[in-house]
Design a protein that fits this description.
Among the domains are: 6-12 and 33-180, 3-Layer(aba) Sandwich (Rossmann fold); 406-502, 2-Layer Sandwich (GMP Synthetase, Chain A, domain 3). The protein is α/β, with parallel strands linked by helices and 508 residues long. It is globular, with a radius of gyration of 23 Å. It is built from 15 helices and 24 strands. Helix 2 crosses helix 3 (66-77), helix 7 (180-193) packs across helix 8 and helix 10 (253-260) crosses helix 11. The longest helix is centred in the first third of the chain and has 16 residues, at 33-48. The structure holds malonyl-coenzyme A and adenosine monophosphate.
């Protein structure tokens, strides 16, 4: 049987000329396809030399670099399971992920080695390496002694390739298990659906620890043998400067909003571009329209999740329909999408309900949480996305809200229950509620409303300052109000919709 290893499939798509440039960085480094081939072989040989058991997890919290991408590819290549972690996560968050996933290998930034290695060794991890964003660290030092030839591991379609932590629809973070087959089938569908062509060049400006930057963008370029212009961080000026050399860009809505704020963005800078893709959070119709006016290009919005990779997309090919702002387009080929009522009944066209999906892209379940996994699937095998939406008569899907209590801020997910837990742990706090309100830059941001215990005087700014030492920065509420009481319904439940309404003008 054919090897179903994702890396093997991506490598087959490398161009014949391995000396051509595959990645060009913003600090003027150029990597050839041969560099990717050799670098991933050396790293895969290093992983293979560690005597890891099958299915071992490789947890990685490092700054974005081409070597970090190679580490991802090498983990696939060696047949192990990649576990990316947001660089903003602080020690309590890392402790949870490492404790839960029990990785055999942890790779962290050199500056974090002290605290990360302590957490990792305590959790039983046998190997902790460092990787800096300037090609420093013990990982590359060790890999330098390894052979640059490596036979790609043999994997079946259902073998795990990656675990992505997400809170799903409820509760504590859960590891979504994605297989080689999930990732490869989605990459192949997107290559065709988005019309990737020879000569395409992708500007890669997203972080590489989530679905968007790690899978959609990287797989998209590699499976097309396309060059990437690699920016270590998003900077609107740099993207605009590089745009004439590129044809494809992917971003969360905040990236588009920030580029529109730069007068240098115009039709001339975007003249060679073929496609602008947006997703991970709702794209405002104003942004969609303004982008078209300024650049002459219509953004293609698509919809996905950690558990499913990409689900729907507006059409690329005009003959199959127009790109409609405010919608996320059609279910991708092979993806089933249906809208169900709260009782599980099928809903007619245009009726709003719960979005459920199935297909070869849908994940294998949550890591070591079989009960949670079965709760999130219907009896007939459809995954409950937690998103609320409708399908119109032409088949366009629109997302109108979420049944899960989730705030999406600048494309990152913030789970109110998690933040409220931390706030409630602060001495003197009786109760708290976190709600999402509109924000011109991040789309949506969290605002905390807190009640103090009797006789205690609390200060909102001090609460925020305290949270900063415990949580990733994007999870920190942008404002915190201390009030006497929270609005409640007759059952005593906090009415978050009223709080949201009360604060919706805060940043407008
Ligand atoms: C940064 N900050 C944020 C934030 N990012 N606040 C709220 N939400 C965010 N997303 C705050 C920091 O806390 C800090 O605050 C200040 O902004 C500056 O931090 P920074 O790190 O310098 O910010 P910046 O580089 O400007 O980052 C903004 C950003 C980044 C938009 C470039 O957030 C980003 O790359 N977002 C993309 C996320 C992404 O890739 N999502 C895909 C998920 S996959 P202070 O107070 O400390 O100064 C997925 C599935 C799918 O959802 O469908 O794709
Ligand atoms: P994550 O768990 O980080 O993968 O986030 C997935 C969630 O992001 C989805 O369940 C949606 O709520 C949201 N999302 C992704 N793309 C879009 C989009 N184009 N429009 C609206 N919401 C989106």
């Amino acid at each position: 049987m054919r090897n179903q290893n994702l890396f093997a499939a991506l490598r087959e798509c490398f161009p014949a000329d391995l000396d051509a440039v595959s990645v060009e960085t913003d600090n003027a480094l150029a990597y050839s396809w041969r560099d990717l081939e050799r670098g991933t072989a050396m790293l895969a040989n290093l992983l293979a030399s560690l005597g890891l058991p099958a299915g071992a997890r490789v947890a990685v919290q490092v700054e974005k670099s081409v070597e970090a991408m190679m580490l991802y590819l090498a983990t696939l290549r060696a047949g192990f399971v990649f576990l990316p972690l947001n660089t903003a996560y602080q020690s309590a968050e890392i402790e949870y992920f490492i404790g839960n996933a029990e990785p055999a290998v942890v790779v962290c930034s050199p500056k974090n080695f002290g605290w990360v290695s302590k957490i990792a060794f305590k959790a039983g991890t046998g190997n902790v390496f460092t990787l800096g964003d300037d090609r420093t660290g013990s990982l590359l030092e060790r890999a330098a002694h390894c052979s640059d030839r490596h036979e790609v591991a043999v994997n079946a379609q259902d073998d795990l390739a990656a675990i992505l932590y997400t809170s799903g629809t409820t509760g504590r973070s859960k590891g979504a298990m994605l297989s080689h087959g999930n990732l490869l089938s989605n990459a192949r569908v997107l290559k065709n659906y988005w019309g990737w062509t020879p000569g395409d060049v992708l500007i890669h400006a997203l972080p590489i620890f989530h679905v968007h930057g790690l899978f959609v963008a990287i797989h998209g370029a590699l499976i097309n043998g396309s060059k990437m212009i690699w920016l270590a961080r998003f900077d609107p000026k740099r993207v605009i400067r590089k745009m004439p050399e590129a044809t494809v860009f992917m971003g969360v809505p905040t990236l588009y909003v920030r580029m529109l704020a730069d007068p240098a963005l115009d039709r001339h800078t975007a003249r060679n571009m073929r496609l602008f893709i947006a997703g991970s959070a709702p794209l405002l119709i104003e942004t969609f329209n303004e982008w078209r006016e300024r650049t002459g290009h219509t953004i293609l919005e698509r919809y996905g999740m950690s558990e499913t990779i990409m689900l729907t997309s507006n059409p690329y090919d005009a003959s199959t329909g127009e790109r409609r702002g405010g919608t996320v387009g059609f279910p991708l080929p092979g993806v089933g999408l249906r809208v169900r009522g709260d009782e599980g009944q099928d809903l007619p066209t245009d009726q709003i309900g719960n979005i459920q999906v199935r297909g070869p892209n849908v994940f294998k379940g949550y890591w070591r949480m079989p009960e949670k996994t079965s709760e999130e699937f219907t009896d007939d095998g459809w995954f409950k996305t937690g998103d609320v939406g409708k399908i119109d008569g032409h088949g366009y899907v629109t997302i109108v809200g979420r049944s899960k209590d989730l705030i999406i801020s600048g494309g990152y997910n913030v789970y109110p229950a998690e933040i409220e837990g931390y706030i409630n742990g602060i001495p003197g706090v009786a109760e708290s509620a976190l709600v999402g309100v509109p924000h011109p830059d991040f789309g949506e941001v969290g605002v905390a409303v807190v009640i103090a215990k009797p006789g205690v005087k609390l200060d909102g700014n001090e609460i925020v300052a305290r949270l900063k030492s415990q949580l990733a920065n994007f999870k920190i509420p942008k404002r915190c109000f201390v009030v006497d009481e929270l609005p409640r319904n007759t059952m005593g439940k906090v009415q978050k919709n009223l709080l949201r309404e009360q604060h919706r003008q805060l940043f407008s």
